[in-house]
Amino acid sequence: MADAFDLVVIGAGPGGYECAIKAAQLGLKVACVEKRDRLGGTCLNIGCIPSKALLHASELFHEAGTSFSDMGIEVSKPKLNLKQMLAFKDEAIDGNTKGIEFLFKKNKIEWVKGEGVIDAPGKVKVGDRVLETKNIVIATGSDVAKLPGVEIDEKTVVSSTGALELGKVPGKLVVVGGGVIGLELGSVWRRLGAEVTVVEFLDNILPGMDGEVVKNFTRTLKKQGFTFKLGTKVTKVEKQKSGLKVSVEPAKGGDTEVLDADVVLVAIGRVAYTEGLGLDKAGVATDKRGRVEVDENFKTNVDGIYALGDCIAGPMLAHKAMEEGVALAERLAGHYGAVNYDAIPGVVYTSPEVASVGKTEEQLKEAGIEYNVGKFPFTANGRAKANKTTDGFVKILADKKTDRVLGVHIIGVNGGEMIAEAVIAMELSASSEDIARICFAHPTMSEAVKEAALAVTGLPIHM
Ligand code: FAD
Ligand code: NAI
Questions:
Q1: Are 216 and 232 in a shared domain?
Q2: Which has fewest Cβ within 10 Å: 10, 29, 129, 200?
Q3: Is the CB of 188 under 6 A from ligand 1?
Q4: Do 111 and 66 belong together in one domain?
Q5: How confident is the model at residue 218 (pLDDT cuts 50, 70, 90)?
């Protein structure tokens, strides 16, 4: 016999699980289909959480070996126990995924284990079982984009998933793609001792980020020992008896150079994942890039079928998927829900962190919007000086006429935490003067945000 639900969510990543929880909180009868043996999707199992656990552990390992003695902490040279570091990461995954299982139970959401196939609007098949439902939400996320001709074996030629599991520190790691994954996981293995070369097709790493920030960040990463081959493409990866040969050439064409590598990490983006979902049979439309097409209410072209998160257009970020999940659940339960796509922060969790929200200078120039810039370096911030974390700056872009904050870009230790202040300001349509007149605790790195706001139209105090 078929089961009847108000909502069946397919995929229990951040978008799917938040949608399920919010819908259940609002009184809907909800099931969530997940084929992985743990809830939490890419983010909790092979993405945000494990990568951050390794970034944290590798950063402490690196600091113990470099800056502890400056503070009068004498330790013998730290020794890496990689097995234990990976176990620490696995514990983080376990704790987080079990947390979602607990929340599902608490909110009486049924986790239907297995692969969900949309049989027809209102019908989801999972094995022999048919779930009948008023609404279906597709939250099936994304998968690694493949580099043509380069086969990922997750041992020596790895995606981010294999790069979270390497059994030993590679002597030479070649990273294909200077995006978020390449720089975060490149940082992990660099700190643990690998020589890291990043091959990026474009002329800059982190395309789309504020140019000035990228320039500063590239310099900092070079100081940390990263080698960059920009405007360069990988044409071949050959497995030899010992190691790999990576052929690269200028993106615009030219002479081939061969790089030696022990491990190659392919991190050239991710693509929407809808394999085996039955979209064709159900008549759900996708765009040229395979993403599910939705309208402003997250509805597909088929009544009763919705989609969100990485499998639709927009930034592939966990918090974007989460916001969409909550907004959609609210709408399905008859309430109001919306996502402000102009105020979605992005953070690169390296050291220092790179964090941004809103428009970059390049985007404002292109749109012909006149703006003022306020900048404040951490070299002039008391807490940063006390902690010796003076790399980077805060930059605020505000509309020339109205002073409304249009974008905030931070490069600095804990930038990922500080950016929340900017997001709140932008959500509340703050002007730079509003921020400048707020009292910030002293001494905090956050004071640089206030000082940058002061710098937009006037003068910062500490410069
Ligand atoms: P996903 O998390 O991909 O979840 C989709 C789920 O659907 C999966 O569990 C899958 O098994 C399941 N599924 C698919 N098809 C079916 C089916 N037919 N039946 C049943 N189940 C199915 N984002 C950030 O914001 N911050 C970060 O720090 C960050 N770090 C990242 C690090 C790495 C290494 C990677 C790879 C990604 C990172 N991301 C980060 C991106 C983030 O993980 C994604 O944006 C986010 O997980 C998308 O959520 P989602 O719910 O749309 O899909
Ligand atoms: P990305 O889109 O961030 O970066 C991919 C990079 O590869 C780009 O710079 C691109 O120009 C380059 N590239 C593309 N094809 C290439 C080629 N053939 N040769 C060389 N370079 C090439 O994608 P990435 O790093 O794989 O991450 C995937 C997604 O995961 C991102 O969209 C990101 O949002 C998300 N993510 C977010 C994190 C965070 O928020 N901290 C952390 C990790 C991932």
A1: yes
A2: 129
A3: no
A4: yes
A5: very high
